[in-house]
Amino acid sequence: MNRTTLSLIAGTAALAAVTGFATLSSPDAASDTARTAAELPVERTSLLCPAPSTSDIAETAYTSFTPVTKDAGDSGKGELKAAGEESDGKSTSKKKAAKPVLEPAEPGKPATGETSGGDASALVGTAEGKFAPGWTVQETTEVAAGTGRGLQGVNCSAPDTEFWFPGASTAADRTDYVHLTNPDDSAAVVDIELYGKDGALDSTLGEGITVAPHSSDPILLSTLTEEKQENLTVHVNVRSGRVGAAVQALDDKLGGDWLAASTDPSGSLVLPGIPKDATAVRLVAFTPSDSDADLKVQLASPTGLITPAGNETLHVKAGMTTSADLGDVTRGEAGSLVLTPTDTSVPVVAALRVVRGKGDDQETAFIPATRPVGTRATVADNSSKGTTLSLTAPTRTTTVKVTASAGSEGGEAVSKTFTIKAGTTQNVAAPTPTGLKGTYALTVEHVSGGPVYGARTLAATEDGVAGFTVQTLPDDRGMVAVPEADQDLSVLQK
């Protein structure tokens, strides 16, 4: 994904905190910046939540959480409002917009809100001051029956200009939508490209899609092409403006879930947190490069890296979507998929479709390739039962600190430290708050050692239907590097 690069003016640190991350150095100034840069909390961030469901029996919960961050200040504000409602409360559409679904609680405590039925809107959220660093919002929807029934979950995401979604489909039993949400005052123009097993699919309907200011559009993939393909890669490219994007993948028989965007194309990828009782796992990969990619496929298990029999490597042709069915690859143990180049490194995006259960009780979730935890990552809407935290150290042993926040309705935070050995995945016994009431957040902080990747699985049963959803834990980008006041910034303007 393309990331916004922020300019620094006169050493004002606040300008480095507009979107939650910043690029502060050029190659010529790298050493000088490294010498003088300081880490400061971001001062403003935004998140976009897609419209949760069209089902009349859908029940959706939103959970907002900001971890406690040193030097974040004592003031600030934040809110999540329906798309179409401006900050002054005036609706930009003829239909009257809903009031804010929720406002963030004090850092360290979750805030929750709920909606029901199929009329819930997409949400546009902003957080400033003490609420901004590491702000995360989880959208979790329970659908008891119908297409996509089960548990659907997604981390609300920041607006961006490019997204890759391997694992989408236009097959007869799938109903997949790309949800595009525009948080800004001007229209965004978006191209949606589809890539199947033989390359780009013929379609002109995905070109130049206009997303009005402060609005959200769900685009049904099957309206963009007449081709029915089981495994697709969706490329969302924003010509002007910026949007939030996520794919809602609904299956007639296998339930459904949200497919979040894969991390930026890379030669090596990690897809963490495959449930140990997964009955079917499908890997879908794509390279935007002009060259083919050859990948070594390994499973990071609790005891080390394992090569799945019959799926030792994956050949990904340039511009074509490739898939491989891995079956019950975890065989009852925690596991994560690690993809590395067998020879020349070629950038790739990838995702897993994971199925649990058998027969009429099957349910589906997706795990995209993700960034490492980095300094810190958080996932919200955890409960005392049904939460599994999975951590992976693909290259070197690492130590992390895991903190369970206070509960949304009561309880005190608790922390534990875990060491994950190189090449392994562990479903750790994550802490729960003392005296927990309500839901809580889990924050993972890197302490020492190599990179660590994480994922959280939520499992719940609604009206007898078992459901699950998986969210990855990429770095929250709650801190930015800011030069000291006496640094000569002229080198950064080159």
Characterization of this structure:
The chain has one helix at 30-36, and strands at 38-41, 44-49, 59-65, 76-82, 111-116, 123-129, 136-143, 150-155, 162-168, 174-182, 188-196, 199-200, 209-211, 215-220, 232-240, 244-251, 255-259, 269-274, 278-286, 293-301, 304-306, 313-316, 322-327, 335-341, 349-356, 363-368, 376-382, 387-393, 398-404, 410-412, 414-420, 424-428, 434-437, 440-449, 453-462, 465-472, 479-482. It has 494 residues and is mostly beta strands. Strands 9, 11, 12, 13 and 15 form a five-stranded antiparallel beta sheet that branches. Strands 18, 20, 21, 22 and 24 form a five-stranded antiparallel beta sheet that branches. The chain starts with 29 loop residues before the first helix and ends in a 12-residue tail after the last strand. The model is unreliable at 1-35, 87-97 and 489-494 (pLDDT under 50).
Percent of residues in β-strands: over 45%
Low-confidence sequence ranges = 1-35, 87-97, 489-494
Estimated structural class: mainly beta
Shape: globular
- How would you state the average pLDDT, rounded? 88
Largest beta-sheet details:
5 strands, antiparallel
Task: Outline the fold blueprint.
Layout (H helix, E strand, L loop, with lengths): L29 H7 L1 E4 L2 E6 L9 E7 L10 E7 L28 E6 L6 E7 L6 E8 L6 E6 L6 E7 L5 E9 L5 E9 L2 E2 L8 E3 L3 E6 L11 E9 L3 E8 L3 E5 L9 E6 L3 E9 L6 E9 L2 E3 L6 E4 L5 E6 L7 E7 L7 E8 L6 E6 L7 E7 L4 E7 L4 E7 L5 E3 L1 E7 L3 E5 L5 E4 L2 E10 L3 E10 L2 E8 L6 E4 L12
Antiparallel strand pairs: 1-37, 2-6, 3-5, 3-7, 4-6, 7-8, 9-15, 10-14, 10-16, 11-12, 11-13, 11-15, 16-17, 18-24, 19-23, 19-25, 20-21, 20-22, 20-24, 25-26, 27-34, 28-32, 28-35, 29-31, 29-34, 30-33, 35-36
